[in-house]
Automatic annotation (TrEMBL):
Keyword Nucleotide-binding: no
Keyword 4Fe-4S listed: no
Protein name: D-arabinono-1,4-lactone oxidase
Domain FAD-binding PCMH-type: 10-178
Gene3D superfamilies per UniProt: 3.30.465.10, 3.30.70.2520, Uridine Diphospho-n-acetylenolpyruvylglucosamine Reductase, domain 2 (3.30.43.10), Vanillyl-alcohol Oxidase, Chain A, domain 4 (1.10.45.10)
Keywords: Oxidoreductase
Signal peptide positions on this chain: none
Length: 429
C-alpha cells in the first residue's frame, strides 16, 4: 500500500497499517512495533504538506477513534476522539448548544492532526486550535496511557506535540456557546489595507485578506461574532454554489490549468479574479462562515511573524515576484492570532500575523517557496509545522524559547524515538 498526503507532496509505503479502536489497542500496536524494530506514526486526514505523518514502519489509522466521547455542560468542555474530523464536530456539538471558539478555513483535518501541527484561524484575540485544548490522553512509547491537563508539567508540550511525544487518542476542548458570524467580504486597494493592517486586524473579531499577485487589490474578510439568537441572513443556495463551488473550485481549476500552460496569461486572469470575487455580506452560524471547501489541490508554505512585520513582508514578496518575473496564480493569505504559551506554537509569546503562499499542485513550488522563505527569515519568521519549509532543528533552537524544554519532554516520553521519522529528525534533531 502506498499512502499520499492531500497535497501530493509526501508519500509512504508502511510495513503495515493498524486501525486501533481504543487506547489499549494503540498501546498494543506500539508494543508490537517495538518488538519488530519498527517506528510508529499516526495519520489523520493527510492535510499536512510536510512529511510529519510519513510512516515507514507502522502506520496507525485513527479513523476508528472518532466521535464525541463526553460533554461537561457546566464547563462547556467536550472530549473528542482523536480521529474525529473537524467537519464532523459542528453536528456533534449542535445538540448541546456549543461550538469551537475559532476555526481555520479548511475543516478536513482531524482534531489531533490539526492541533498537533499548529493549525489556526484568524482573529487578534483568538489563539490557534491547540489553545482550545484543556486535556489530552496520550499513549507513550512505553505503552503508558497518560491523561495530561493544565496541572501536568508537560501540558504545554502535549497540546502541540508534532506527534513526537506519543499517540493522541482523545482531546478535551474548551468550547463556547454556539454563535453566528456577520461576514463582510469586499475588495479594497492593497496599499490601503497594508497601511492600516495593524488597526484593521485588531478591531473586528476576525479579519483576514487574500491578495492575488500581479494585482493591486486585496480581498478582505471581516467577521463579527453575534449571539445565536440574532437573525440569519445566509447566502442563497445558488449564490453559495456559484461563489464557493463553481467559481472557487471548478473555474479556479480551469484557471490554474490555463496558467500552467500559458504563464503569461496569469496576471490578466488574476486581475479578472480580483474583480469577480470577494464582494458579499451574509450572516450564518459560525462554522458555515469560517470554513470553505477546497477541491483544487495545491502546496502551501506559511510563516508566522510578529504582527507588526506583516505589511512590509507582503510588500517584499510583491517586489520579489516582480523582480524574478514569476507568474503566480494562487493568492497569498494573511491572518492574525493572539499570543500563547504553548512551547512549539508559532504564536508563542508574541502577537502574530501569518502569511501563506501557495502553488498549484502541478507546478514546481521549490524555487518560489525557498525565495519567499528567505524573506520570512529576515523577519524572524516561524514556519507552520504542517506546511512546506526548509528549516531544521538548529534554526528552531533560536526561534522558540522553550525548544530545549520540548526536546527534554521528548527524551522523557520517547527516548528510543519510536515516533520518529525523517521530518521529525530534521526539525527536532
Amino acid at each position: 500500500m502506498t499512502w499520499q498526503n492531500w497535497g501530493r507532496s509526501e508519500s509512504a509505503s508502511p510495513v503495515r497499517v493498524v486501525t486501533p479502536a481504543s487506547a489499549d489497542e494503540v498501546a498494543t500496536a506500539i508494543a508490537d512495533a517495538r518488538r519488530d524494530g519498527l517506528t510508529v506514526k499516526p495519520i489523520g486526514a493527510g492535510h499536512s504538506f510536510t512529511g510529519i505523518a510519513v510512516a515507514d514502519g507502522v502506520q496507525l489509522n485513527l479513523s476508528r477513534l472518532s466521535g464525541l466521547l463526553s460533554v461537561d455542560r457546566e464547563l462547556q468542555q467536550v472530549t473528542l476522539a482523536a480521529g474525529t474530523h473537524l467537519h464532523e464536530v459542528p453536528a456533534l456539538l449542535a445538540p448541546h448548544g456549543l461550538a469551537m471558539q475559532n476555526l481555520g478555513d479548511i475543516d478536513a483535518q482531524t482534531v489531533a492532526g490539526a492541533t498537533s501541527t499548529g493549525t489556526h484561524g484568524t482573529g487578534a484575540a483568538f489563539g490557534g486550535l491547540a489553545t482550545q485544548i484543556v486535556a489530552v490522553t496520550l499513549v507513550t512509547a512505553a505503552g503508558e496511557i497518560l491523561r495530561i491537563d493544565a496541572s501536568h508539567e508537560l501540558f504545554n508540550a502535549a497540546r502541540l506535540g508534532l506527534g513526537s511525544l506519543g499517540v493522541l487518542v482523545d482531546i478535551t476542548v474548551q468550547c463556547v456557546p454556539a454563535f453566528k458570524l456577520a461576514a463582510v467580504e469586499a475588495p479594497e486597494p492593497l496599499a490601503g489595507v497594508l497601511e492600516s493592517f495593524l488597526e484593521r486586524s485588531a478591531a473586528p473579531d476576525h479579519f483576514e485578506f487574500y491578495w492575488f499577485p500581479h494585482t493591486t487589490t486585496a480581498l478582505t474578510k471581516t467577521n463579527t461574532r453575534l449571539a445565536l439568537t440574532e437573525p440569519s441572513v445566509p447566502l442563497g443556495g445558488f449564490k453559495r454554489w456559484l461563489d464557493d463551488e463553481f467559481m472557487s473550485n471548478t473555474v479556479f481549476s480551469w484557471v490554474c490549468g490555463i496558467g500552467r500552460s500559458i504563464p503569461a496569461a496569469i496576471p490578466s486572469i488574476n486581475r479578472l479574479a480580483s474583480q469577480l470575487t470577494g464582494d458579499r455580506a451574509f450572516t450564518d452560524v459560525s462554522t458555515s462562515v469560517f470554513t470553505t471547501v477546497r477541491r483544487v489541490r495545491f502546496r502551501e508554505m506559511e510563516y508566522a511573524l510578529a504582527v507588526e512585520a506583516i505589511p512590509e513582508a507582503v510588500r517584499e514578496i510583491d517586489r520579489l515576484i516582480t523582480r524574478k518575473g514569476w507568474r503566480i496564480s494562487f493568492p497569498l493569505e494573511v491572518r492574525v492570532a493572539a499570543p500563547d504559551d504553548i512551547w512549539l506554537s508559532t504564536a508563542y509569546g508574541r502577537r502574530t500575523g501569518y502569511v501563506a503562499v501557495h502553488r498549484y499542485v502541478k507546478e514546481d513550488h521549490h524555487e518560489y517557496f525557498r525565495a519567499v522563505e528567505e524573506v520570512f527569515r529576515t523577519f524572524g519568521g516561524r514556519p507552520h509545522w504542517g506546511k512546506i519549509h526548509y528549516r531544521d532543528a538548529g534554526d528552531f533552537a533560536t526561534l522558540y524559547p522553550r525548544f530545549d524544554d520540548f526536546l527534554a519532554a521528548r527524551d522523557k516520553l520517547d527516548p528510543d524515538r519510536v515516533f520518529a521519522n525523517a521530518y521529525l529528525t530534521r526539525v527536532l534533531g
